[in-house]
Automatic annotation (TrEMBL):
This is Protein YhfH. It comes from the Bacteria.
Length: 43
């Protein structure tokens, strides 16, 4: 059975940072795998 692409992305699990394990607040289909804290991003 085929699934709509929008449904596929909506049902992906939340991403977690590979260093600290914290949930990453971004789109699940993006390529990043570290949170802003572990990337040392300054607001």
């Amino acid at each position: 059975m085929l699934v709509k692409m929008s449904e596929f992305f909506k049902n992906l699990p939340t991403k977690k940072c590979v260093e600290c394990g914290k949930e990453i607040e971004e789109q699940h289909e993006c390529y990043g795998n570290k949170c802003d804290h572990c990337l040392h991003v300054v607001d």
